[in-house]
Amino acid sequence: MELSRLSRRAFSALAGTTVLGLALGGSVSSQALPRSGVRGPVPTGPPPGPPGADGVRHRIALDRYSLLIDGRRLALWSGEMHPFRLPSPSLWRDVLQKMRAYGYNAVSVRLAWNQHSPAPGEYDFSGVRDLDLFLRTAAETRMYVVLRPGPYIGADVDAGGLPGWLTATEGTARTLDPAYMRHADEWLSRVNAVAARHQYTHGTGTVLLYQVDAPQRARLTRLHDKLRADGIDVPLLHADTPVAWGEAERTRDAAEARRVHLDHLAHGVTLHNVHTAFGGTSWGWLSAPSAPTPTYDPTAAIDEARRPTDKLAPLHQLGQLLRHVPDFTRLDEAPRVRASDARIQVRHLANPDTGTHAYVARNDSATDVTSTLPMGGTDVEVTVPARDAKLFATGLHLGAGRKLAYATVQPMMSLSVGRLDIAAFVGRAGESAHLVLDCPHEPWPTRLDEEAAWAYDHGKLHITVPLGEDRVTRLRVRSGESDRTLILLVADDAASLRLWPYETPSGRVLVHGPALLRDVALDGATIRLTGDTVEERGLEVWAPRGITHVTWNGEPVEASVGRAQSLMAVWPLPGVPELVLPALDGWRRRTENPESGPGYDDSGWTVADRRTSHSTTPVPDGQPVLFADDYGFHYGDAWYRGRLTGAAGLESVSLAYSTGARGMLMAWLDGEPLGTHRMGRGDDGGEGTWTATAAFRLPEELRTALREKHRENPDAAAVLSVLVRRTQHDQDAYKAARGLTSAAFEGASPRVEWRIQGAAAPDPVRGPLNNGGLYGERWGWHLPGYDDGGWESVSPASFPREERRQGVTWYRTTFRLDVPPDVDASVGLVLDGGPDRDYRAQVFLNGWNMGEYVGNDPTGTPHTFVLPNGILRTRAAANTLALAVLADGEAVSGPVAPRLELLGSAAGGVPVKHVASPGRRRD
C-alpha cells in the first residue's frame, strides 16, 4: 500500500503558488474558494457531472480535502489500465465501459515508451499504439484520465518502459544527464503533443491529471517547466503527493481490497487509485523479470479475459459511494471511539458541513469479531469478519428530512431519481442487516420483499434484513409530510454487482438486474439501455418522470410499473447462447535452427568485435563485447556463431551469459549438440538479472572429429553455435547485459571470431517487441499466409512426437470461429504442463506474439493464453496459430494437444474491429 505525500515545497516547485492548488497556465485555480467568494474550504455539495469533451473550459484545483472541479468537490476513484497490455483498440472501449459501470470515474494510464519507439528518433502512435484514439475513447465513455507517460513507468515492463535502444546509449536514465534528457524530452514532446489536445481544462478531452517521473527535486522543477512549455496545464502529480494520491498495490482477495481501500478513506484520501483495475496480457517480449508470465496481475478485479472477479464487489461498492454520496469528499478526523473488543481498530471521521460521521472498523485478526461500537450516541453491535474491514455511517441524509441514525451494513449509494430518493446498503451474505432511520414524521413503510421486517418507535424506523445470496431486498418508505418516497435497497456482495446507477443530462437512473450496464439514453418517453447479460435476469429500472418505455440493446422490453415505483420487465432478459469451440487439428510441423550447422552461411550477420560498451556489465578482459543490445538486438532470442581456429585439442567450452527470468542457452559445436542450460533463481546475480556459466564437456566422438579435422586441414575452423533466450531487461538495472558475456575453453586456446544475429527489422504493425531472432521468425513462419504446405502433417493424437531433439520445432494450424455478432466471447489457448514437458513455447496468433509458455511445472498445471478479440477473428474468419518450441533434447519437443477454451461469454459487448495482422510477403 502506498499513501503518497507531496511536501509544501514540492507543491511550490510545481505551481509557484500556495499548497491549496496548482496554478498551471492559468487554467487551474491557485486557491480553493467557496462559491460565496469568502476564503475558506469549499463546502460539501453535489459532485461535478460526468466528464466529456464538451468544449467548455474547466477549472481544476486541489485543497487538503479533495480535487475541486469548477468549484465542486470530486472524490477521484481511479483504476489503472495499460492500453499496451490490450492490443485490440476496440476492446479499450469495453474495458473503460466496464470500469465506469463498476464505479470508477477515472482511468490511470501508463504509456510504455518502448512500445512506441523502435529506434532513436522514431516514434509510432498508430494502430495498437494510438494514444489519440485511447483518449478519445476515454472521453466518450465519460472517464477522467490520469496520464502517466514516464519516461520510466515501472509496471513490470521490460526496462520499466524504457526503449531497448536506450540500453546501448550514453547517459543514465531518470537523472539530469544531458544524453538521457535529450531522448526523454523527445519522448515527452511526442506524448504531450497528443495529450495537450485532450485536456479537461480546455474542454477538448478528459485528461485531468498528469503524473510525472521525477525521482530528484531538480528534475521535478525542470519537468514542470518543460510540460508547461509543451502546453500541459492540468495539475501535475509527483510520486510524493499528499492527499492527492492513495494507491494500493495488488491485493489478494475481496477482504484485503476492502481493508486497504477503506484504510485509505480512513486516512482522508480522496484521490484513490486501484492497481490494477484491469490486468491484461504482457504479450510479446513486454514483461519485466519481475512478472515474466504473459498474464499480468492475476489479482486484478477485471481479469485478463475481461471478466469480473470476486474482488470486484468491494471496489464497485466504494466507487459508487464516492461518486453518489458527496459527504465523503470532505472528512476531518473526529474524536476517537473504541470498540468494546480491542481486536477491532476504529477510525472515526466527520464531515463538518453535513454532520455525516464515518467509522472504519478493521479486524486484522484471524477470526470474525462481534463487538459493540459507539455510533451516533448508541452502542451498536457489529461484526467484522476476519482480516476484513467495514465502513459504517451515521447522520447520512437520505432525502425528505430522513437521516441514517446508524446501520450495521455499509452505505453504497444515495441518489434522487425523479420523485424518489433511493439508498442502497451492502453487506456479506448470511449477515443480518440492521438499519435505523431518523424520521421526523411517522413513516408508512411497505415491505416489498418478504425478507424485510420493520418497527417504528420514538421517531426511529428500525429495519432488519437477513442478507441472502445474490439477493436485493427492497423497502418503500412514505410519509404524509412529503411527496418524496424513499426506496431502501439492501444487497449482499453478489447482488450489489447488478446495481447500476447512471447519470444522464435529464437526471439519474438506477438499473437492477443485468450483468452489465454500458450506456443509457433518454429518448422522449423511452429509456434506451445498452449492456450485457450472461444468464436470464429480470430488469428493473428507476428513471426520471415521464419515462414509460424501455429498450434493451435496441429491442423493446415489455415493462410495467412495480410497487417500488420502478419499471419492471415482464419477461427476463435472455442469457447468452451456448457456444461450441472447434478442436485444433490439421497441424503441420517443421524443425529449424539451421544456424547450428557448420555450413550455415552467416556472412550477413553482424560481426561482434566491439571492445567497449555502455552496459553496466563489465567487458571481460581480452574478449570482445558479446552483449546483444550493443549490436541492436534488444528483444527475443539471439544467435551467436563463433569460428574457432586452433581448436584441435578442445576438451570443454564454458559460456557465461546474462538474462532476465527464465533465460536459456543452447550450444552446438560443428552441428553436434553440446547441451542446454537454463537460468534459475539460484543463479540470481541481481534483482532482475540472472547470470550463470554453462559448462559443456565435449563428448569423445566430437573431440576425435576435431582432431581429424585439424589433421586434414590445420586452418579449418570449428563452428560454435549458441542460441540464447535472453529474455527481459530489469526495470531498475536496464543496462545490465543480455546474451553471451564471455567464452572460455579448456584443452585448447582457439582464436575466435564472433558473429551475432537477432530479430530482423521491427514489425511495422506489431511493433518492436513482437519478434525475436529465431530462424522461423526471421522468415515469417509465424505469419498468416505463409505457405506451410511442404511441412509434415501431425495429428493431435501424435502431438508431440516422441523424437527428442535439441533445438527449435514449429507447429502451425488454422481454425475458424463462428461467434454470433451480438455475443462477446473470450477465448483462450490452453497448453498443458508436466515434468516431461520441459520446453519453451512462443505462441503466435495471426502473427501476434501472445507470450511465452514455460512447460516445466512439475504439477502439470496448464497455462491459458487469452486471445484478444480483434487479433482473434471470431466471426467466421480464419485464424493462424503458430507455436515455436525450444526443447533440450531430453523433453518432448512440443505440447500435448493444445486446445481452445471458452473463458466467458455475454450477450452484448462492443463492436470489434479486426486488428491489422499482415501476413508474409510473397517472394
UniProtKB/TrEMBL annotation:
The keyword Phosphoprotein does not apply. The keyword Glycoprotein applies. It catalyses: Hydrolysis of terminal non-reducing beta-D-galactose residues in beta-D-galactosides. InterPro entries: Betagal_dom2, Betagal_dom2_sf, BetaGal_dom3, BetaGal_dom3_sf, BetaGal_jelly_roll_dom, Galactose-bd-like_sf, GH, Gly_Hdrlase_35_cat. Keywords: Glycoprotein, Glycosidase, Hydrolase, Signal. Its EC number is 3.2.1.23. PROSITE patterns: TAT. It comes from the Bacteria. Residues 33-54 are annotated as: Disordered. Residues 33-42 have a biased composition (Low complexity). Pfam families: BetaGal_ABD2, BetaGal_dom3, Glyco_hydro_35. Residues 325-499 form the Beta-galactosidase domain. Belongs to the glycosyl hydrolase 35 family. This is beta-galactosidase.
